[in-house]
Every structure is written in C-alpha cells, then in structure tokens.
Amino acid sequence: MKKQIVALTAIAALSTGAAASASAADYSVKKGDTLWSISQNNNVTVEQIQEWNNLSSTLIFPAQTLQVSGDAQAASESTYTVVKGDTLYKIATEHGISVGELMSWNGLSSDLIFPGQEFSVAGQAVAPAQASAPAEQAAPAQDSGQTQSTEGVSGTGGEAPSSDAVQSMTVTATAYTAYCNGCSGVTRTGIDLRANPNQKVIAVDPNVIPLGSRVWVEGYGEAIAGDTGGAIKGNKIDLFIPSQQDALNFGVQTLDIKILD
After folding, report:
1. Which of 109, 116, 63, 71 is nearest to 90 (CA)?
2. Which of 64, 179, 237, 254 lies 20 to 30 Å (CA to CA) from residue 29?
C-alpha cells in the first residue's frame, strides 16, 4: 500500500510539472501586479513584455493573460474571441490598439459585444461574428449602452447589475465633453472620444477607482474608468457626454455607483 501511495504521488507531481511547463509562457495578471514586477519574476524586461503583447502603455488589468516568453510570440494570433466580461476597451488595450481601430476593422457600429464573437486585432478584417446575444439580451434594455441620450444620463436609466460588485459607493458627479476649448478628445487611457462619441467613459481619481475598471453609474449605465481630471479627487466622478450643452445641463448630482471589476 505504501509503495502504491508513493507511486501515485510521483505521478501527480509529474503531471503538475508538465502542466506548469505547458503554461510557462503565459501569465495571468493578479491584483497589484505591474509590468515591472511581472518582468522581474520572469527574468525579462518591461519592454519585452510590451513588445510580445503589443502593449502601447503599462496599463494592465487583473485576469489579463500576458505572454512572458518570446517563444510564444511566434504563435500569437491576429484574431481574438470574446469571453464573458470583455469590453471593447479591454480588448483594444490588451492588443495595443485603439477602440476606434477595433470597431473599424470589425465593422462594429456600437460597443455591444457577446461571448463567442471573433475580432480581428491586427488590422485585417474578419467575417462578421455570428455569435448571437443570449436570449435575455436579445431585446436591448432601456439603457443598452449603444447610445448616449440626455434622458439616459440625467434620469433613472440603467438598472443596477444583478451580480455582486467589487465595491459600491455614493459619489458627486459632474459631466464633461470632448469639444471644449483646448480639449484633445483623447482620454488618459487613450480613448478617442471624438471618434467614439457613444463610448461611456468616466473620469475618476485612480486612488479611489482604478483606471480601466468597469463601473456601473446610476442613470448612466456601465462605463469604463478611462480618464482623470485635476478636479476629480476622492469620491467624485466626471461623466463623458458628447453634447457640450447636455454636459452643462447635467450640473452636479449625487449618484450611486458600483465598481464591477
């Protein structure tokens, strides 16, 4: 019996070793990771990780998979299959491209995507994805995330997500536009708001809400924490609204938000 236990233990150890070896070129980002810490743990440079993963910045997200070996780069694909929890911003950032490029290459007219869709992430168009929305999403809700209207912003549109949020809080909210004097229209994380006026983006204090987080905002819906601002400190956010007049009409409001990831 003892010999049998020892033999089984050895087999298990060999299996574990094989699995570890097979995935050695991949690394799943954990909360608190930085490109520098990942590079040090894998004996590579930050620049190498950025090159192997087509990253144009050092912004990374928990659960993001990174190549940490040059051997895996040769096997990288020019297409990406959407998984649950993905957003266009997250996919674009992981592949070092803009949301506008991703939408253009794949013939997208909105930011509504579904698991199973296949997107080109290298500039070559692919056939339109055939994946369909889940039954409960086939008919868009009142606040579907495809359009941005004044009523949806200042009213009560956008049901709170049923899943548990990472954190909930009450914030003071104002609004801004991409067409003010001196504005470039490009956010801190590289989103071109003029090219993507329907994108839901909020400016945040990164010490309170991490950049790149998905955030549900009362009356606004699900947005990306993709911008910052000199006056955005503490529990305060700034909502992007395409129309300058609508942004002015928004004023200052107290809203509930939920940080989703």
Report:
1. 63
2. 237
